Amino acid sequence: MVKTEMGRLQEHPILEFKRGKEVTIYFNGKPIKAFEGETVAAALYAAGVRVFSRSFKWHRPRGFFCAIGKCSACMMEVDGIPNVRTCKVYVRDGMQVKTQSGMPEAENDVLSILDDVMDTVFPHGSHYLKFTTSKNARRFIVNQLRKFTGFGYPPKAVYQGKAGYEEIETEVLVIGGGPGGMSAAINAAKYGAKVLILDENPFLGGQLVKQTHRFFGSAKERAGTRGIKIAEILEGELRSFKNVDVRLETRAFGIYNGEVGAHQKGEVDKLLRIKAKKIIVATGAYERTLVFENNDLPGVYGAGGVQTLMNVYGIKPGNRGLIVGSGNVGLILTYQLMQAGVEVAAIVEALPTIGGYFVHAAKVSRLGVPIYTRHTILKALGKKCVEGAIIAKLDERWNPIPGTEKKFDCDFICVAVGLSPAHELLYQAGCEMKFIPELGGLVPLRTKYNETTVPGLYTAGDVDGIEEATAAIMEGRICGIHAAISLGYGGKEAEKELEEAVKELDEFRAGPFGQKVVVGIKKCLVEGVKV
Amino acid sequence: MKYLERGYLIREELPPFPSEERLRKRPVAYIECPQPIPCSPCYESCQYGAIKMQNINDPPVVDYEKCTGCMKCIRVCPGLAIFMLRIREDGMGEVTLQYEFLPWLKKGDKVKLYNRKGEEIGEGVVNWVLPPEMNEKMSLVRVEMPANLIFEARAVRPVRE
Question: How many separate domains does chain B show?
Fold first, then answer.
């Protein structure tokens, strides 16, 4: 058995958890022990907190979902500031954290009665239809209804801290320090371009930091190496360049005609105005969720959220989980949970066949985890937190077959049903976008060198289509080299490497697993300007 | 492909078995990797040309006569799909498999054996390990078992004393 203490893993076959100094934070006034380096959400989870907020209308309990700052289910008031994503804020001794969407607090919310009675009084959508005859009645009722919602209260005091400002000029700006972004930065820098790379996290590596499994691919793409190690290798390489500036905890918020606005956290928070000749967007993706009864119950988590909790912060997500989705993420997560001493009740897959690599499925099958293909989750059971789940078999037309229901006892459910590109910056910058289901959602039109329809703006990684880290690294290499060449660096040698890199990526996608992506990319490929 | 409905291989879907004569000579790599996926470290690790692949998406095929049992491939396989099989002179069977769970197994540990479906099929004894720190936290464990189980036993768990 894997040893745990205070909800935290004390040992792990692959990972070593380096925890910082012990600190105390106050949650709704109650002291909670935490360790420096943990996010508020992670520390609260370890202390047994499951209800992080209440839904703003019916006051249904909500827990965290993604744990990487995308879903907003964990928003709380931190040190007087409302709507803070607690999965993105790190603990500090004496920090005051309050749930903001409950009366008196999210855990025991008297307004949760709304969930039981209001639906009959005010059916869904009725706030658009009722009280619309008189302007004054409308104003009155809207004001009254706002009191019941959970969006927190504005800070009582004016912000007293200092704010800084910095103008930066660079040749290549990379937004996002995951595998795609780091690879792009490395490849642009190695031919001499001046590079600035931003990441909103206090660490580089993106989602690689939770990938404890060994990667596939060829030895050249570091196959057989664990994802966490690949992140270290890439970071080492990146930091070896003198012409690369790395800014962590820095969030780009807009691209305006080749200038980028960003916010850098630090001793003094800074506004950055970045003038860049080439911009590479590598912002990754969001986790998707699935529609089923009670899918908002605390305990229904995104697969990546559970990985973050378990593999980054070393916190045990629960005792027994159910996995929905048998893509590589679901299969790998199952194995990772077992490595952390967590039982997995079953994997449920709606498709007739397993979606991920067979070898990943074989790995968990032999450890006794049943995989139910052509099954779906009907509902999550529990009042304040998941206590179980009901699944059922699907017929040929994807309808649940009555009488085939199975009940599982579990204290959490992981939804691993795919990702959607985090495309906002590209959209805002004016790239021509297209909805391509094969690539996971809205993606930019691009050339074979990953340049979008906005000249000088490139993409790499999941943001231009959901694949995996190896493909992101290869895409990063392509657009990094292309950016360097179009700035006048590299010469013949770079051009040769660029063509090689394009060829290697084509070969990588040539197999049956790459077909979907190849079809998707064909739909959004445009002719670019020749270098 | 039926195996993708189940998540494990059955007898008819397994690659051809090495001959008993070959199994008695020295350990041989047996690869259960039927699906075309972009992965080739086993092929790249083999110095003897015993693993054949046309391209990176091609499933590996082992030439049992060329395989020397050197274990390079099992050290690197990210899919945990390679097993080293052997029948010893005394008639006992041996399976070497990749293992990355706590507690780490040691020589002499008794283990329960499980088949591809996760059903318990017997007991074995660990008679050699490559410690995790020697192979990037991927331990290799050689388990002694009755020879008739070497094509069945695919997972082990320590027997709790």
Answer: 2
Domains of chain A (ranges plus CATH)? Answer: 4-148 (3.10.20.440), 163-286+420-524 (3.50.50.60), 289-417 (3.50.50.60)
- Least confident range of A140-144, A146-150, A165-169: A146-150
Residue B76 has its nearest CB partner, among A224, A326, A353, at A224
CB contact under 8 A, A357 and B5: no
Q: Which residues of A touch B7 (CB under 8 A)?
A: 326, 347, 354, 358, 361-362, 364-365, 371
Residue A170 has pLDDT above 80, yes or no: yes
Angle subtended at Cα A382 by Cα A379 and Cα A385, rounded to the nearest 5 degrees: 110
Binned at pLDDT 50, 70 and 90, residue A406 comes out as very high
Domain range holding B145?
A: 88-161
* Cα A395 to Cα A278: distance, rounded to the nearest angstrom: 51
- CA distance, residue A7 to nearest chain B CA (Å): 18
- Judging contacts by C-beta atoms under 8 Å, the chain A residues touching residue B44 are 218-219
Give residue for tokens 């700035």. A487
The pLDDT score that the predictor gives to residue A531 is 44
Percent of chain A with pLDDT over 90: 78
Is 0.90 exceeded by the ipTM? yes
Residues B104 and B138 in one domain: yes
Alpha-carbon distance values, A221 to A120, A331, A467, A501, B43 (Å): 57, 22, 15, 11, 14
